[in-house]
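We close this part of the discussion by returning to an individual protein. The encoding preserves chain order, so positions in sequence and tokens coincide. The sequence in question and its structure tokens are set out directly beneath this paragraph:

===
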Amino acid sequence: MIDAPGPWGTGPFTLVEGYSSLDTIMAIQRVRPEFVATNLITGEDRTPRVVLEANLTHNSGRMAELERVVFVNDLTPESALDAVCDRVGEIDIVTEVGPADAARVRASEHARLIAIDANRLLVGIFNTWPDAPLADERMRLAINLAVDRHKMAEETLLGYATPMASLTPAWCNGVFPDAVARRRDAARAKELLAEAGWPEGRALVVASPSGFAGLAETVAADIRDALQIEVELVVVPDEELIPASRALVEKKLPPTWDVLMHGWFDLSSDLPPAVVHREFFGDTGAFRAGPEDPEFDALFTQMAQSIDPDRSRLLAEKIDLMCFEHSKALFLCSPQALYAVNKEVDFKAYRATFELADTTVSEAHWSRS
């Protein structure tokens, strides 16, 4: 957090104007035998402009190629897209472009679309607390077989996503060998439902933040069609997201949903279980929606204590495979990161973060005139 004007920073850039900070609250999971808590973001405080300048005393060979970078924080996403697609001299890069806007960027005279397979994932968290129907592994597999993740990636997300087998994207270290995302099999899903015995007259509840509402409706429709049970979709209003997130993290009350649409990310491609699988299934996991899993925790402890890279990778693969085999979540897809970029800007996209240290502009860029 940097909440005052600089200059700050010892990396390729130095902050010289403005600030960007986050407001958080603490959600406490437990205090004994050790204190475990998660900080939830409740707000963002950014000046209209945040300015970086190249750090000429950076102590590595990776020097910034740009002299000055200005982040413009007071534009709506629509206005920013207009500026990069329809005009020059205002905005050079727009981050977090949605799939629905990709065609407009591709057709632009001034901008081009950059897409990269990012360390992001979209899953459905299963409520596996005792007496919940999805505590039964057969029901979790049934739902995984009921949902067409390939169709979601290709049609709902317009091809800007990759179906996932488990929680590790195919390009990361630690994906289990021969991992293949499950194909929809409505007939087998219906058989598993019959074996497990879905409670008569009970609706399966799919909850979602508003940002994933369209994707959640796709999931709900697939489950209705394959399993022939009632599915209730609950879209959580934005103003209720913080208390709902706190309830999930603190685990004091059982969830009122069966499946929760949830997005997450990883800042490293090395060992995803460290910050992905652990958050969903570990004993200290903020997103775990069920009892602790001794098998998972034992494997994770071995990986966390390993100092041998090859052994760590094998353990990460074993964790990813275990999550797949036990259908520990509704594995959906990994969305790409999409950027609208001025055609005279050579922007280097990264899987994990948004960085500009290696970005350059051509001699024809408006800033050089």
